[in-house]
């Protein structure tokens, strides 16, 4: 067998050399050097009906030479393309002189800025957006209180980020697949998830689509194209790139959209996913909710760059910084980004600046690491709901009466939803073992039998509200 | 006799009478032994026995268009000869032809054809989109494969070396294994994660790892190990068609094994073990490359008068306790030969499973030969001593059969 290996490794080596004859450099990067291929671009050497990826590499189109016409002595030629030289030692500064400006449409008080450019929003959409923002806020309030009362084990609110949640969802189509972190239930709300369905998941009863297997706020709905929340930070980013790749292969008019926080941008998966998305030319929107805090870590301890938006350029990704508390700005930015992503097959990075008004979750008390005044200021003075409400009312589409009607309706629905969810049975014991595989294998069937035997012999030690 | 269980068409299995299986060779047992306890992983009721064989026959019926074979050498005389990596490639190519959703992603799998040439020629045939070269980040492209699988594709993710998949552990454990469960069954993840592992020829410690021992606890994934061109192609096809995430372990030193395989289409059962050599005296359980060391030792053992039964367990998660159990009940002695480390390897789990389920049938403690708990040294002589050698297997069998 050893002889076999030696001879075939030699032949493998020969194959590599044969493959590369005709290229001036044997590295794989030579694929990108259009001007070095004697046989013409890769795409024409393959069957014409096959889609190839190497049609437009950014590196080739970058203008690198400037005004020098006499190229041979003035230009440096390395894998990756030609570029100009400089005799100066010049380090690129660690940051620009000015921070990247932030796109916004409404001022702090909800008045439209005079020179603002944005995508117009119809009355129906605007009213639905505002109503959903109110619904999200009230839902969060009531579930949070329920947790404090001991009726829920856990909850995480999205206070302060309602505009990001709802406005981005409004700008997308129902076919766009969402890969959330855990602070984006508003996207589900916009798409039609009912308060009852939210409550079912939080209470983990048998009507929960997740069959009671996950913590509260880990929603998922395949029919609304919202992928089940996985608690691990930033692991959904590469998943989104894969989904975008799949959509591109199927040539669908849809993109993948993924959310993450300022903390998530430190994870390795963030960097890898952005790099991959750029190389694969995948239609994916990376929306960063930079809310200033990762549990107790402020952004000054998270990264030293000018936020997250500047990281896009490092990977060759078009990026924009938006006022995340401005619903109209979010809507326009996501709308434009989506168009670009699908039409041009490229990823887009959106950094939405906002503030996390609530605690990280019900297991956190944020007054221990930040001042209550700061939280209060963001909650009152820079509230996304009041800013958008001012604009909607200025168009004559909303009123105090509509507001109080809406709030009382939602409160009634929420309390009813919680009441029903609390009373609904928990999922059956066999759901502990189903869906691990498509068909439960022998070892899981055995283990289920053991559990049932244990419950039978010691019924007082097991919860009585789990149907067997 | 055992070969009849696993080979043959679906009809044979459905009329199969389990009670006929036990060989009447246990003269030293008390006569009071109940005759009802004759098969399958212990403790199971009759219902679970039946459902297992029904499930087996259902699986065979579902793929009834293909013939399943127990023997690895061609019996019909037709067929074609190829190397193991070509068999993997053939299986992959056939599945990519059959289903346009199957795609491949990994480092250097496209125009380079893969580091071990398993994906050679596929990029030219199917295009760059279906055979995707990725940048170097195992966690990212595994995550990408999982996201693509959740949206309808069936990716085959290649790790250039299994050891590199340690970087992908987060995605494999948290997303691949769990999401079907935590989403309540709403999203399936039909990925295949494959790559070469095991101790090679002086590849150094980082490139000689046995990842099956690290992955075996992850709930939600299946693991299989191929060892011949026949089962490599069959397992590759079965893994791609499975709705569960499957990790297919190949071995660096087995890629150039030559064998004749059938021309007609076939797949292998993912949860089934392979009877390599039926015997009476001792059951030797092994997988991947150690199968060949065991067969070499078996030649010596036969010359010395022993009759070992060699089973290639193939399915590392879940274990095929049906086949293994039947063998233990026949021979009453078990030797496990593996390449994993002594601590926490596949052998360790298998020993526990056999002791738990078949303790009454054992005449001697289960013996497990595995590699030592050391990183694999680079020096050739030292490396050879970390891997179980045929001489050690012969000694162990002689010891067990005293």
Please describe the topology of this protein.
The complex is a heterodimer of chains A (468) and B (402).
Chain A: H1 2-20, H2 42-45, H3 58-61, H4 71-74, E1 75-78, E2 81-84, H5 123-148, H6 162-171, E3 177-179, H7 185-191, H8 195-203, H9 236-249, E4 256-261, H10 268-280, E5 284-290, E6 293-294, E7 297-298, H11 311-314, E8 318-323, H12 327-344, E9 348-353, H13 372-380, H14 384-394, H15 400-423, H16 442-457
Parallel strand pairs in A: 3-4, 4-5, 5-9, 8-9
Antiparallel strand pairs in A: 1-2, 6-7
Helix pairs in contact in A: 5-6, 5-7, 5-14, 5-15, 6-7, 6-12, 8-15, 9-10
Chain B: H1 3-6, H2 10-14, H3 46-62, E1 80-83, H4 84-98, E2 102-106, H5 122-126, E3 131-133, H6 138-150, E4 154-158, H7 169-176, H8 179-182, E5 192-197, H9 212-215, E6 222-225, H10 229-241, E7 246-251, E8 258-261, E9 274-277, E10 282-286, H11 290-303, E11 308-312, E12 315-317, H12 321-331, E13 334-341, H13 346-358, E14 367-371, H14 380-386, H15 390-400
Parallel strand pairs in B: 2-3, 2-4, 4-5, 5-7, 6-7, 10-11, 10-13, 13-14
Antiparallel strand pairs in B: 1-8, 6-12, 9-11
Helix pairs in contact in B: 4-10, 6-7, 11-15, 12-13
